[in-house]
């Protein structure tokens, strides 16, 4: 079913040129980048769907308030403004600024995790789990089974399975569990939301065992939109109030403001407990900067405070999710296998269904990411075995059930024409997918978050394409 592209609730004031390249150029660039589009120069990319993180376009108001940034080392006015907006929209009394989400993950993991601990959550996220593991915890996935099935149309694939969560607590005991790690939306499931009902159940189970709930709020506004659309009883509540209702069920929030809040850099930790907040401030001093800027310039905090206000405006979030849905449904209509239903920030092309002839060991999603760039100049990112990394204990590759190419859409950056070009290009590549004949093997495998800097070569030949491909 074709769905209309939403009318953008903004008009363009500044533009950035896109350079056109031909296929030969792109194949050369890809080889130079070790078949990993992450290592390309962005000027060689036509439509960059690598991430929606830090890539959004700021509004005229955000650019305007940059000039009001208070760059004082201590006690900057911009911090108090940021704290005011976080308190108003997310409801956390203590706000500890950090330069981006993973800095918050580092600090919260160090504060709460000890070797031998176990953390449960609704699917892992790369940097979140990396910090949990670095501090000695084992992560356990307690998301519902439907989240691992790309074809399931479950409206809340981010939901926690309460039976899995209870079994996890029973097995490891509350003393070995520092907190529950909940994402909204769930990035690695394809931007799938968690329902408020599920969040409330998590809270109930956590309370029964005196466990804190840590909420990843990177895309919580997008999650709130899905609750409004899909969860009974919330259709008439504002996005802002749904966001508060979600956050009210958490003890700690870790925010990568580079997503929902539409800034190029920034983040914060939201905390209720004053003692924990004091300890977080102490660590921020070591890793980030003073507790009133935490790795951000004063102007960054101004833009972030303004971005929070804009993020919950109904027309903004509706157009944002509507654009992602438009692209997703164009692909669905053409028979391209994508993760269903279409998520909040991305459209995910199922690489296992697209390239069944390439084995998991040869990284089919990474192969498809490389093929997509060579063929079209579009850059996506692998979300599958490469992103999942190795088990820290056994050293074996982890093979999550989902293996896809994520096309993440930056906010307020691309137009309907770009979405159509992306759809046409992905559909064209899909019809010629049998020309992708080889997968990839590592020539360089970094120890952490390996997908960012890994290098590859085609396995058993010079190219991932057959020799007839032009
Ligand atoms: O990239 P950071 O350090 O600001 O945030 C880390 C991070 C935490 N949680 C979630 C759900 C994320 O999606 C996330 C970063 N995501 C990136 C970079 C992405 O491309 O999805």
Please, could you describe this protein's structure?
With 470 residues, the chain is α/β, with parallel strands linked by helices. The protein folds into two domains: 23-52 and 314-458, Aspartate Aminotransferase, domain 1 (Alpha-Beta Complex); 60-311, Type I PLP-dependent aspartate aminotransferase-like (Major domain) (Aspartate Aminotransferase, domain 2, 3-Layer(aba) Sandwich). The protein is 39% helix and 12% strand. The chain has helices at 23-32, 60-66, 77-90, 101-112, 126-134, 162-172, 196-208, 220-230, 239-247, 274-287, 298-311, 314-333, 351-354, 364-376, 385-388, 416-431; strands at 47-48, 94-98, 118-121, 138-141, 180-183, 213-216, 252-256, 267-271, 346-350, 378-379, 381-383, 404-408, 440-444, 455-458. The strands form four sheets. The protein has a seven-stranded mixed β-sheet with strand order 2-8-7-6-5-3-4, with helices on both faces. A three-stranded antiparallel β-sheet has the order 9-12-11. Helix 7 links the parallel strand 5 and strand 6. Helix 2 runs antiparallel to helix 11 (298-311), helix 4 (101-112) crosses helix 10 (274-287) and helix 8 packs across helix 9. The model has no long low-confidence stretch (mean pLDDT 97). Bound molecules: ligand PLI. Residues 51, 53, 100-102, 125, 127-128, 183, 187, 216, 218, 256, 258, 267 line the site of ligand PLI.
Features:
2 domains, binds ligand PLI, 470 residues, three-stranded antiparallel sheet, 12% strand, alpha/beta, 16 helices, seven-stranded mixed sheet
């Amino acid at each position: 079913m074709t769905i209309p592209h939403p009318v953008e609730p903004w008009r363009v004031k500044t533009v950035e040129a896109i350079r056109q390249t031909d296929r030969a150029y792109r194949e050369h660039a890809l080889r130079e980048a070790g078949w990993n589009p992450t290592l390309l120069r962005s000027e060689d990319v036509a439509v960059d769907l690598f991430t929606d993180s830090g890539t959004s376009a700021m509004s005229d108001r955000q650019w305007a308030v940059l000039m009001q940034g208070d760059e004082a080392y201590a006690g900057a006015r911009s911090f108090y403004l940021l704290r005011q907006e976080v308190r108003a929209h997310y409801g956390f009394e203590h706000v500890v600024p950090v330069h981006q989400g993973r800095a918050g993950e580092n600090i919260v993991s160090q504060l709460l995790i000890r070797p031998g601990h176990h953390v449960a959550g609704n699917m892992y996220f790369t940097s979140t789990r990396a910090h949990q593991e670095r501090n000695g915890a084992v992560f356990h996935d307690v998301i519902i089974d439907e989240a691992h099935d790309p074809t399931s149309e479950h409206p809340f694939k981010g939901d926690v399975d309460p039976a899995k969560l209870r079994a996890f607590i029973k097995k490891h005991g509350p003393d070995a569990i520092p907190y529950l790690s909940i994402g909204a939306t769930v990035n690695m499931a394809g931007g799938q939301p968690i329902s408020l009902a599920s969040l409330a159940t998590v809270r109930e189970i956590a309370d029964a065992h005196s466990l804190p709930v840590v909420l990843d709020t990177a895309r919580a506004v997008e999650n709130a939109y899905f609750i409004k659309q899909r969860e009974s009883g919330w259709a008439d509540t504002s996005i802002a109030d749904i966001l508060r209702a979600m956050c009210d069920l958490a003890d700690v929030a870790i925010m990568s403001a580079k997503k929902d809040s539409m800034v190029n850099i920034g983040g914060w930790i939201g905390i209720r407990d004053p003692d924990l907040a004091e300890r977080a401030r102490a660590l921020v001093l070591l890793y980030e900067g003073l507790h009133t800027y935490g790795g951000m310039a004063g102007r960054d905090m101004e833009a972030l405070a303004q971005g929070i206000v804009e993020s919950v405006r109904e027309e903004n979030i509706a157009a944002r999710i509507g654009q992602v849905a438009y692209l997703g449904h164009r692909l669905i209509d053409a028979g391209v296998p994508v993760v269903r239903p279409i998520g909040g920030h991305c459209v995910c092309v199922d690489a296992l269904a697209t390239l069944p002839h390439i084995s998991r060991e040869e990284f089919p999603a990474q192969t498809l990411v490389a093929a997509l760039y060579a063929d079209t100049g579009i850059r996506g990112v692998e979300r599958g075995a490469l992103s999942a990394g190795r088990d820290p204990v056994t050293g074996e590759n982890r093979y999550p059930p989902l293996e896809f190419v994520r096309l993440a859409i930056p906010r307020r950056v691309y137009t309907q024409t770009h979405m159509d070009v992306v759809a046409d290009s992905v559909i064209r590549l899909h019809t010629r997918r049998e020309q992708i004949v080889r997968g990839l093997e590592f020539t360089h495998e970094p120890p952490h978050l390996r997908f960012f800097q890994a290098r590859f070569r085609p396995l058993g030949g010079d190219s991932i394409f057959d020799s007839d491909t032009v």
